[in-house]
Amino acid sequence: MKKLLLLPAAALLLTSCTVMDVVGPRANGEIMALAKQASADWVFGDPAREQWREMRQKQSEELKEEALRLCGLDAQGQTPASCDVSYGDTDLPAEGNASAVLEHTVAAADKVPEESVDLIVAQAIDALTLSPVDLEPVTETVSDAADTEAARDMLARENAVYYGLGLALAYADADLRERVGELREASHERTAALTRVLDIADGESLVPAAGYEFAEGYSEPANTEEAAQLVKTMQSDLVAQWRYAAAHAESATWRGDAIRLAAHAQRV
């Protein structure tokens, strides 16, 4: 007599799923934790801080898109069903602030995939720029050799920009002189912070190189319009370099400092 093969109900349910649905990739936990915090800041944020809430909403969507990207695609070119970026029945955390974003980012940067670090660091920088950036916490001396080199490189770049801003003053009108003054003061504040990071004397940090030459794409201004363009380009390039330094930091200490310094440069 033949016997019937009885399958448990759970097994019957699995027959309608693919293997990828069961053992497929899951959304990265660290990325999703950051996404949930961003969503909480948007949902529970002060309605009066519309810019902050809109930024955090956008950042939560960016993080979920990053989680989906990391999951990859199946043979049909679709995101695997196992890669769920919904929050399900879990509660959102309490609302945070820009300082909390910085703290969470520094903690997560060593845990997320290397290819995701640029995104989360960029988000932390942007979050900090919505209010004045405090550089007083930038005090600890870096010990990692690569971070020390990066900090010295940024100090040299700050000095070069400071020098270039001085050249622009010769052709500046009243508005541009005011702008250059703001940028030079802000640069001096970052330079002072870097002296603490590098544990060097303040006088040493302000010593420019023996001579500067304009790199390709730059030229000494000959009028107010060219001076204004030079100032804009130098500032844009400096911000880009600070963002790069923050994303490629080796230690948590320097990463936190570089994020603050990048936001400070971006905000001015």
Structure description:
The chain is mostly helical. The protein has 2 domains: 105 residues; 123 residues, Ferritin (Up-down Bundle). It is elongated, with a radius of gyration of 25 Å. The chain starts with 8 loop residues before the first helix and ends with a helix.
Strand content: under 5%
CATH architectural label of the largest domain: Up-down Bundle
Biggest β-sheet: count, sense, barrel? none
Can you write the helix and strand succession as a string? HHHHHHHHHHH
In the CATH scheme, the class of the largest domain would be: Mainly Alpha
| CATH level 3 topology of the largest domain | Ferritin
Overall pLDDT confidence? 89
Q: Report helical residue fraction.
A: 55-70%
Q: What is the count of distinct domains?
A: 2
Give the overall form.
elongated
Structural class: mainly alpha
Span of the ends, CA to CA: 86 Å
Number of strands: 0
CATH superfamily grouping of the largest domain: Ferritin, core subunit, four-helix bundle
Unreliable segments (pLDDT under 50, ≥5 consecutive)?
1-17
Radius of gyration: 25 Å
Q: Count of helical segments?
A: 11
Oligomer: single chain
